[in-house]
Amino acid sequence: MYSNPLEEAARQAQICNACRYCEGYCAVFPAMHAERAFAEADLVQLANLCHNCQNCYSACQYTAPHEFDLNLPGVLAELRQESWEEAAFPAALGRAFHRSGTMLALALIAGFAVLFLAARNLPGDGEGFYAVLSHNAMVAIFVPAFVLPLMALGVSLRRYWKRIGGGRIRLAHLQNAFGSAATMRNLAGGHGDGCNFQDEDRFSHARRAMHQAVMYGFLLCFAATSVATVMHYAFDMPAPYGLFSLPKLLGVTGGILLCLGTLGLLRLKTMGRPELQAPDVRGGEFGFILLLFTVSASGLLLYMLGSTPALEPLLALHLGAVLTFFVLTPYSKMAHGFFRLAALVRDAQRKLG
């Protein structure tokens, strides 16, 4: 852990800039080599471009016990974390989750689940889930829980964009950034062999694959909810839906991908090298992974056991997990996807002008 990550990142970046051995490894090094000196905005941008694949550390000749004692993935991880916490709105919530994320997530899930169990005594207005909790009640709870955190995240991103010196965004910048994010290009390694996140002598695409499973699983689940909303309001086709309906096909597929991806990331996180990450926030990282797994696993169980007496407790657990996910989005590791995308857009501005 560094007492001043910004100052230490500047020192290490100057040495890396002189060496240039890792030039082709990821987007960090071309962006680094485009500068002769590093302002705060440059270093924060580099930190958020870094995907912590750790290939550069394994290849570096200046790591400990060399007197230069380089650990670029580690110092960028700490600086990246600091940039998220400073941009968070309000910042105190970001710090609280990253320090005690697992306990905070579990407490919120349990608390919200108890409230949803109590709300089952309110009259329902439909079939399936809506027989337990009315559609209007769900809308009244989840619309503010979605919109307000989204607004807080918008404030955070605006702060971050200003800090890294972002300019006017063009369509070409977005296309370049989304293309990189969609393929997880920066987790492929400099030669396309993957990264050595677990073992410095072995390259693997496992981390890239698990990130893609989580990302596309989440997007499929979001698409399922969006399609169901359109069917409900535009075509007067309320839930529940059958297995071969579009919402179910999207949601079940997304839920399975999310379960597999989160379990894979949890395994990789426990096998990784903590000294090359931000050690103080591992609780928040594990908490976020477990939260996503609870959301997806409880959703799948709810679908499989929805016609049994387990419906009410499973629905309370699932809704509690989903509500916790929404409330914590601006402060959990979920926000890192938005910040990383912003860093990719900023890098596209550097490349494309």
TrEMBL record:
It comes from Hoeflea olei. The chain crosses the membrane at residues 101-119, 139-161, 213-235, 241-266, 286-305, 311-331. Keywords: Membrane, Transmembrane, Transmembrane helix. This is 4Fe-4S ferredoxin. The keyword Translocase does not apply. InterPro entries: Citrate_utilization_prot_B (IPR012830), NarG-like_sf (IPR036197). It comes from the Bacteria. The keyword Methyltransferase does not apply.
